[in-house]
Amino acid sequence: MASFEHSHTSLLPLPPLRERNSRVLNAPNPETSTEILARGLKTALTLLHQPETMISLNPLVIHYTRVSPAPEHQSQQVNITHLAQVFDIPIPDPPSVSTFTASKNGEFVHYEITDRFTFLFGAITKQMNYRSCFRPLYAVENTHTTRTTNDNNTSSIGLETISDPGSGVSLLARWILSVDKQKPGYLVLTETVKVNCNAMLKWYVKAQLQGAHEQLHSEFKRLFVEKMVDEDPSIAPSARIKAKQMQSPNEIGAEPEVTLVGRVNSGNSIKEGMKMRLEIGRTKNEDRNEPSELRS
Asked: What is the number of other CB atoms lying within 10 angstroms of the CB of residue 52?
């Protein structure tokens, strides 16, 4: 049995500060930097807390079904009791709920997922059914475990999943959202996956994770930018539609461009906005920096 870790970090761009458009009658007031950051955190966490969205962003997935936590569906559920011991993570009692919004104390929601895998450089395609479960991830001081008591999801820093593809393979994934003062204008999204598998399968599992999850991060970033534009209170509806049209979402795997809508502040704000647009195209190797802890 072999174990390894896979990680991937993405920078989620926040909109630049804007001035009020004096040429438009009753133009909405622009957001402050604090409001932009709060809205960005809320938008990213909302996406992370939608398991169906996260599953659908994976390019390998072709079908999924949510599984009831009832005992009669146990064969379709992840064996949480066993894998929680394998990965040394706490679980509540009961360990499962029927919907993600009902997970108030770290309970998991189960799914059956069908992936499409290719072998021999694309010569053979095979479908694989496996089980996966999802729950909110919370910060715990001085540990790397998940808190199991919480009144609501507002203090969540991301998402935790356990997957059981079979053949002795098991995965624990954590998606952590953070703010890094060294990267103004961005949120940092870091995915870390712990994998246990047969030594003979290690190279194949690594290759599948690398390819699929790079595209998953790219699609998450694109969706995040779209949501931020859609929900921007300082952008007029006509300008919002134009901004979405300029994002070129049809290019698979392409990095999204942040369109500066409306008038931006003069001086340094213009330079920062332009710099933000340019930095979206940086290579993934440059983006892979360790994020700091989520700051309030």
From this structure: 13
Give me the number of domains the chain comprises.
1
26-31 long-range contacts (CB < 8 A, ≥24 apart) are 27/236, 28/233, 28/234, 28/235, 28/236, 29/234, 30/234, 30/262, 31/232, 31/233, 31/234
Considering the domain boundaries, does residue 292 fall inside one? no
Asked if residue 142 is part of any domain, the answer here is: yes
Supply the pLDDT for residue 123.
56
The Cα 146–Cα 174 span in angstroms is 10
Please give the angle made by the CA atoms of 188, 287 and 54, to the nearest 5 degrees.
50
Q: Is residue 6 part of a domain?
A: yes
**3-state SS, residue 86:** helix
Report helix angle 202-230 to 237-245, nearest 10.
Answer: 150
Give the residue from 121, 76, 69, 117 showing the smallest Cα distance to 97: 69
* Chain mean position to CA 231: 18
pLDDT at 116: 76
Instruction: Residue 98: give its domain's CATH number.
Output: 3.30.530.20
Residue 245 lies in a domain: yes
CA distance 296 to 179: 9
The better pLDDT of the pair 189, 267 is held by: 189
What are the Cα distances from residue 194, in Å, to 18, 162, 163, 211, 281? 41, 10, 10, 16, 28
Share of the chain above pLDDT 90, in %: 43
Q: Nearest CA to 174 among 68, 94, 294, 295? A: 294
pTM confidence score: 0.74
Bridge partners of 112, per DSSP, are 65, 131
CA distance 221 to 22: 32
Q: Do residues 105 and 161 touch, judged by C-beta distance below 8 A?
A: no
37/43 Cα distance (integer angstroms): 10
* pLDDT value at residue 110: 97
